[in-house]
């Protein structure tokens, strides 16, 4: 089940909200935990057992680590931490990367190992990272072990962010699991945020995504290749940030405050800035639990380069079990190393529009690497983008696609800028608060109704990050 479906909006969400708000305070986490299990089991009932195992496994690990540390048995506490990390990664590897490993072994050897063809459990990358961060933080002494298994289960399975993040670390919501305040204003903020996210996903991502699908499956010209790359760049941003907005909005409806996951990444003036604004929770996770423990930048340039390459290779693999994701991660890793060690200080001296062009050019190219998992097709697409080979600059089909979708493209580009923030700031200073309140609500209602109409009539409603 995903958020942008009528069955979630009109059946599941109203039912769980009703049950949640009529439940006594002591049972609210229980109702939310059970609802999350139903949400998860809706599409994959068999894999609920994996999430429940991860929950119990790390619940016990957290208690054991804290117990051994209180007894000053630090070696035993460290051993439990290692067991937790290895256990979580083993589950993730088995379901997500076993076929990838088998495929590569078969290609490099004369072996013919039969692929396992396992279906990827939804959200496994997200909740695995969450439970790992919990045991690590308990070991570090940054949080106390959770003794209520229902509360811990709620943290692991929390359906608003279970499928696609943001990656919620236990220490950021530990207090909220015990004491959180629900109010009409907060609920209203949640509804508004959910609607904005749904509009991004249904009205922008889905429609610009159809243009990308059409271009990527047709004969390419240089112009159409770049148009398709720009369309996918816009699709993945509105798809993922829209889903994050819906998750944050749902969290508010249940009294939670999740951290932001996107901050207008396409206004960035460097790749370094881009990754401070894109998928913030993932970048923070890798920084705190991989990059810094490896030594970060404390041990010289050579060690820094090695650490960054490791982090970005893992970041690429986290997104998918295919070589294009590894290439994508290493692509960004190399760019970030070059910026950090060579030319970031020079880049900042250039005019803003040059910095923006530089960043967007490299980011758009990166999304082509991300989008195409067939290496031969990826090579052809990149060659076409840069005019390598006997390909025309433009044709009538490209002109037609561009002209018929020009308004959608412009809306998507404008929506990825600071315009919304600027408008909100100006509206806050407007004297007629009642009028502004009415207009904003009319806009939210309109976005909701139009989105539902698109959902009911559309056959194209993918969710790009579902596979992660």
From TrEMBL:
Alphabetical UniProt keywords: Acyltransferase, Cell membrane, Membrane, Transferase, Transmembrane, Transmembrane helix
Recorded superkingdom: Bacteria
Positions of transmembrane segments: 6-23, 32-57, 77-95, 304-321, 327-346, 353-372, 399-421, 442-460
Membrane topology qualifier: Multi-pass membrane protein
Pfam families linked: MBOAT
GO cellular component, one term: plasma membrane
One annotated GO molecular function: acyltransferase activity
Protein name per the record: MBOAT family protein
Species the sequence originates in: Vallitalea guaymasensis
């Amino acid at each position: 089940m995903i958020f942008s479906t009528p069955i979630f909006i009109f059946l599941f969400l109203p039912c769980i909200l009703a049950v949640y708000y009529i439940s006594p305070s002591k049972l609210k986490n229980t109702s939310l935990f059970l609802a999350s299990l139903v949400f998860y089991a809706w599409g994959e009932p068999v894999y609920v057992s994996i999430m429940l195992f991860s929950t119990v496994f790390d619940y016990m690990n957290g208690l054991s680590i804290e117990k051994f540390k209180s007894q000053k048995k630090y070696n035993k506490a460290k051993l439990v931490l290692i067991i937790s990390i290895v256990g979580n990664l083993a589950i993730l590897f088995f379901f997500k990367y076993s076929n990838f490993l088998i495929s590569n072994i078969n290609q490099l050897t004369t072996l013919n190992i039969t692929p396992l063809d396992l279906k990827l459990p939804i959200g496994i990358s997200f909740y695995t990272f969450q439970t790992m961060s919990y045991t690590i933080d308990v070991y570090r002494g940054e949080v106390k072990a959770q003794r209520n298994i229902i509360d811990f289960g709620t943290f692991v399975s929390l359906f608003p962010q279970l499928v696609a993040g943001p990656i919620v670390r236990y220490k950021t919501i530990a207090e909220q699991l015990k004491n959180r305040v629900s109010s009409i204003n907060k609920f209203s903020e949640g509804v508004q945020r959910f609607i904005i996210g749904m509009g991004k996903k249904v009205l922008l991502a889905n429609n610009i995504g159809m243009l990308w699908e059409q271009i990527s499956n047709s004969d390419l010209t240089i112009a159409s290749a770049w148009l398709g790359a720009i369309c996918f760049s816009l699709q993945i941003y509105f798809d993922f940030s829209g889903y994050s907005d819906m998750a944050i909005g749902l969290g508010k409806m249940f009294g939670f405050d999740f951290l932001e996951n996107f901050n207008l990444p396409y206004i960035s003036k460097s790749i370094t800035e881009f990754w401070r604004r894109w998928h913030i929770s993932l970048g923070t996770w890798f920084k705190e639990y991989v990059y810094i423990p490896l030594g970060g930048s404390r041990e010289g340039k050579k060690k820094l380069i090695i650490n960054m390459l490791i982090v970005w290779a893992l970041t690429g693999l986290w997104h998918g079990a295919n070589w294009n994701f590894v290439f994508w991660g290493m692509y960004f890793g190399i760019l970030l190393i070059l910026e950090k060690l060579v030319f970031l200080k020079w880049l900042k001296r250039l005019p803003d529009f040059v910095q923006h062009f530089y960043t967007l050019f490299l980011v758009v190219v990166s999304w082509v690497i991300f989008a195409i998992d067939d290496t031969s097709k990826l090579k052809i697409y990149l060659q076409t983008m840069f005019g390598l080979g006997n390909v025309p600059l433009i044709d009538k089909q490209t002109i037609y696609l561009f002209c018929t979708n020009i308004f959608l493209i412009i809306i998507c580009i404008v929506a990825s800028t600071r315009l919304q923030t600027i408008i909100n700031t100006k509206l806050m200073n407007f004297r007629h608060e009642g009028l502004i309140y009415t207009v904003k609500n009319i806009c939210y209602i309109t976005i909701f109704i139009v989105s539902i109409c698109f959902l009911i009539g559309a056959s194209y409603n993918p969710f790009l990050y579902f596979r992660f």
